[in-house]
Amino acid sequence: MKLTEDQIQDGLTRLTGWELDPAAPAIRRTVRLADFLAAVSLVNDIAQAAEQVDHHPDIDIRYNTLHLALSTHSEGAVTEEDMALAARIDELVP
Any idea of the CA torsion for 80, 52, 26, 24, to the nearest 10 degrees? Predict the structure, then answer.
């Protein structure tokens, strides 16, 4: 189910470092880690979590920096699934 902007903003208050990109629409977070191997390790952890719920983020890795974006493409919007996966990702970030 598509979330309203108010629902998204409310959900973001419970997350760490995620922001709404209204042009996408998506929620985004950038994570910087110690080095490339730490970034790849986190990507692997995120991949496992995403597979468990069959909902997958867009991930861009640049050395030690991950750019993450979540949107439900079939809905063309941010949904509860995106917020739930964002919360799970927050748990995985060291």
Answer: -130
